[in-house]
């Protein structure tokens, strides 16, 4: 799947040893349905002798890096293509690609990749509470889809018979509300609330929230 991404690049050249990089840092904001981001780091051998890229390492297994060839003559250009696969991650992500060259084998170049992964299905609050002796009035959990996404909540269940849940659709595909109601608040109890969605279509996501009655 080809991601739709907004790319913010530092366009000034950056020199490390003999290599001059078009940018050593790239930043992306993901969109719903994106599963990965691809970044290309272009460079030129600005020195007077050939230079060899000895090794490329990434900071995690979710990020890969590819290079067409290893040795570059003076004035020759190339690029390192990286791919960061989201794999369920959300929020701000920072990855590094370490490039070791023949002219500075003990001082690798650090390329940076920053990605903000939008949380498509947001559950707030993730937990609701009562105190023992409170009135067993309903408390609400809100489920919202991201601006560019449509998400259907298929079902909501509680693993406790004493803490019941009721799903209400506020705006189709966008906003839902879950009312959590204790049978009684006379004693401690707790529940895990499971929220089943149809997003993403190839691997539907399950979200969780929590309810608990505590001693004062």
- Total helices: the number is 0
Strand order of the largest sheet: 1-4-11-10-6-8
Number of strands: 19
Unreliable spans are: 1-16
CATH fold group of the largest domain? Immunoglobulin-like
Instruction: Assign an overall shape.
Output: elongated
Q: Give the overall average pLDDT.
A: 90
Task: Give a concise summary.
This protein is mainly β and 216 residues long. The protein is built from no helices and 19 strands. It is 0% helix and 58% strand.
Report on this structure.
- The protein is mainly beta and 216 residues long.
- The protein folds into 2 domains: 112 residues, Immunoglobulins (Immunoglobulin-like, Sandwich); 94 residues, Immunoglobulin-like (Sandwich).
- Helices cover 0% and strands 58% of the residues.
- Strands 1-4-11-10-6-8 form a 6-stranded mixed β-sheet, with no helix packed on it.
- A hairpin with a 7-residue loop joins β10 and β11.
- The protein is elongated and about 80 Å long.
- The protein starts with 5 loop residues before the first strand and ends with a strand.
Keywords:
216 residues; mainly beta; Immunoglobulin-like; 2 domains; 6-stranded mixed sheet
Q: What's the helix and strand layout?
A:
Layout lengths: L5 E4 L4 E3 L2 E3 L3 E5 L6 E10 L5 E8 L4 E5 L3 E2 L4 E9 L5 E11 L7 E9 L3 E4 L2 E5 L7 E7 L7 E6 L4 E9 L3 E8 L6 E9 L8 E9 L2
Parallel strand pairs: 4-11, 13-19
Antiparallel strand pairs: 1-4, 2-3, 3-5, 5-9, 6-8, 6-10, 7-9, 10-11, 12-14, 14-17, 15-18, 16-17, 18-19
């Amino acid at each position: 799947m080809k991601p739709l991404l907004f790319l913010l690049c530092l366009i000034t050249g950056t020199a490390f040893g003999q290599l001059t990089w078009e940018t050593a840092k790239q930043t992306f904001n993901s969109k719903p349905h994106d599963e990965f981001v691809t970044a290309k780091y272009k460079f030129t051998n600005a020195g007077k002798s050939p230079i060899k890229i000895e090794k490329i390492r990434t900071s995690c297994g979710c990020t890969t890096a590819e290079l067409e060839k290893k040795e570059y003559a003076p004035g020759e250009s190339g690029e390192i293509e990286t791919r960061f696969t989201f794999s369920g991650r959300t929020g701000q992500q920072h990855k590094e690609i370490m490039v070791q060259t023949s002219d500075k084998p003990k001082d690798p170049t650090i390329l940076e990749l920053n990605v903000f992964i939008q949380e498509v299905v947001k559950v707030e609050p993730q937990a609701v509470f009562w105190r023992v002796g409170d009135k067993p009035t309903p408390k609400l959990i809100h489920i919202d889809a991201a601006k560019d996404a449509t998400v259907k909540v298929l079902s909501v269940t509680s693993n406790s018979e004493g803490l019941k849940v009721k799903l209400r659709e506020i705006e189709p595909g966008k906003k839902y509300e879950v009312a959590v109601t204790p049978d009684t608040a006379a004693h401690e109890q707790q529940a895990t609330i499971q929220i089943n969605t149809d997003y993403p279509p190839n691997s539907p996501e399950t979200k969780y929230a929590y309810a608990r009655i505590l001693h004062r």
